Amino acid sequence: MIIAVDGPAASGKGTIARALATHYKLPHLDTGLLYRAVALNLLRWGGDPESEFAAVRATDFSQIDFDDPELKSEAVGGIASRISVYPAVREALVKRQTDFAAQTGGAVLDGRDIGTVIVPWANAKLFVTATPEIRAERRFAELKRLGIAAHYEDVLIDIQARDDRDSNRSAAPLIMAADADLLDTSDMSIDAAVQRAIALVEARLECSA
Ligand code: DC
User: Is ligand 1 within 6 A of the CB of residue 35?
Assistant: First the structure.
């Protein structure tokens, strides 16, 4: 079984994807980490994010440790969003994702284009979202928890810029697949969102049984 979970930054899609993977005992891939690895590589080389050529070179990230906390930083996330507009960068990352999805037994993948481009044949697709203000509040609380100084207004501006770039790029933009289920987590606790996600997947499985 393949489950595709897409949605904007800080929507809760990663938490939901991880919970679904645990529930269904499936391996999970956070595809945002691949784009973040390219961004971190570029940052370390001093490459220019405005150059598609440099960004493609940075897709050779065999030296990146996927447990490196820097991958999760706001700076790396911002560069990841910028380099993810390049079709050649996206192309270089496709095989890793389709190979992961093709594992025996299936997988859960989360990102922006999983249900539309990477595995449009997924058995269940969720599009997880929340208002920009709620997402900014969550991100702000997370930064505070990590002891990183930030202003709520700056976090909101950053989220809106990221939404705009991810949704309006021409290569694999962030859009809800026609056959995805919408899960708006704005007014939901994490537990409630996870329970709803499981119920939506179950309903899809029943439909296709
Ligand atoms: O989910 P995230 O915040 O870790 O993703 C970082 C950036 O990577 C995001 O702003 C856009 C890009 N991305 C993408 O274009 N396609 C994906 N499947 C996953 C992430």
Answer: yes
